Amino acid sequence: MPPDHVTPETPSERRIPFVDLRAQYESLRPEIDDALRAVLESGQFVLGRPVADFERSFASYLGVRECVCVNSGTAALHLGLVALGLGAGDEVIVPANTFFAAAEAVIWAGGRVVVADVSEDDATIDPGAIEAAVTPRTRGVVPVDLYGQPARYDEILSIAARHGLFVLEDACQAHGAALGARKAGAFGAAGAFSFYPGKNLGAYGEGGALVTNDPGIAERVRALRDHGQVRKYDHALVGHNFRLEALQGAVLGVKLSRLDAWNAQRRRVAGWYREGLAGLPVRMLAERQGVLHAQHLCVVRVASRDAFRRALAEEGIETLIHYPIPLHLQTALRPLGYGAGAFPIAERLCGEIVSLPIYPEMSRELVGAVCAAAERACRRPGPSGGDGR
Ligand SMILES: Cc1ncc(COP(=O)(O)O)c(C=O)c1O
Question: Does ligand 1 come within 6 angstroms of the Cβ of 196?
Answer without folding.
Answer: yes
